[in-house]
Amino acid sequence: MKTLGTRNNFLAIEPKYSTMANARIAVLPAPYERTTTYGKGTRAGPRAILSASAFVEFYDDEFDRELVFDVGIATISPIQFGKLAGPKAIALIRKQVDALLEKGKFVVTLGGEHTISLAPITAHLAKYPNLSVLHFDAHSDLRQAYEGTPYSHASVMARVIEHLDPRRLVQVGIRAQCIEESRLIKEKGINTFFAYQMYNGSMPGWQDRVVESLTEDVYVSFDLDALDPAILPSTGTPEPNGMFWPETMSLLRKVGERRRIVGCDVVELAPPMGPKHSEITAAKLTYKLMNYAFFRRSG
Ligand SMILES: [Mn+2]
User: Fold this and answer.
1) Over the stretch 207-254, which tens digit does the pLDDT of each residue have?
2) Is 84 helix (H, G, I), strand (E, B) or coil?
3) What is the Cα–Cα distance from 205 to 198, expressed in whole angstroms?
4) Gap from CA of 226 to ligand 1 centroid (Å)
5) 1.10.10.10, 3.40.800.10, 3.20.20.150, 2.60.40.1120: which CATH number matches 15-132+219-293?
6) CA of 245 to the centre of ligand 1 (A)
7) What is the CA(53)–ligand 1 centre distance, in A?
C-alpha cells in the first residue's frame, strides 16, 4: 500500500515515523462524495485535514506526550473512486481497511461524506465482535433511504444496524432528524443522547451514561457537524446547539480511560462551506482521538 511523504502526510511526519513498517496507526483518506444535500465539498475534506495537520503540534499537553514518535503514523494514498458509487465504493474502502487491520494497524479513516463509515465499521465488527459504535453527529442518520439511495450520508447508521445490535449504537449530539428516525430509535433501543438533553440539565452525568452504554471495544464515528457551527462551520449540514470542545474532549477522555477505542473515522468536513479554522479544528480533533485511543497503551 502506497503511503504519502512528509509534505502531504498527517502531521507532516518524517519517514522514520511514517512508513508502513514504522507506524502503528494508519490514516486512510476516503474522499468520497456522491449524496451530499445542502453544502458540497466533502470530497476535499481529507486533503484539507492533512494540509491543516502540518500546523498541529506533535506534543500533546494533556498527556505530556509526543504520540507520533511513540507509535508512528502512516498516511495511505487517498482512495481513488473513479466512477464507483454506493456498495461498490463501500467495498473498495472495506478492502483497504481489512488489509490494514490484518497488518495490525489502528485505522483512522478520513471522509468524505458519512456514507463511507459503513466500510470501516463493518471491518472492525468482523475483527471485534463485541464492538459498539460511538457516533458523534447532529443527525441520527437513520433514514431507510434518502433521495432514492440507501447508501446516503443520511442513512449510514440505518445500514450499520443491519450488522450491529442496535443497542450497541450510541449517538451523541443529535438534534435534527425526521419522525421515522425518532420512532426507529425507540423501537430498536438505540442509545441516543439528544443535544437538548445534554444541555437542558435533564440528564445530569450524561457523559458517564454514554460511557456506560458502550461495550469494551469502541469504534468512534465522528461526523464533524456534531460540533457547534461556532467552532466548526465548514460542514455540509450545519446545525445550531452543537457540542463544544471541552465537553467533546472530556467525553473522549472518559471513553479512552474506561473502554478500548479500536478504530475511528472523522467525516463530513466540507472546506468550501466555511473558514480555515474548521480545518485546523478537524485535524486537531483527529490527533486528539488518536491520543485518547492510545491513552492506556505504549504502542
Ligand atoms: Mn451529520
Assistant:
1) 999 999 999 999 999 999 999 999 999 999 999 999 999 999 999 999
2) coil
3) 9
4) 7
5) 3.40.800.10
6) 17
7) 22
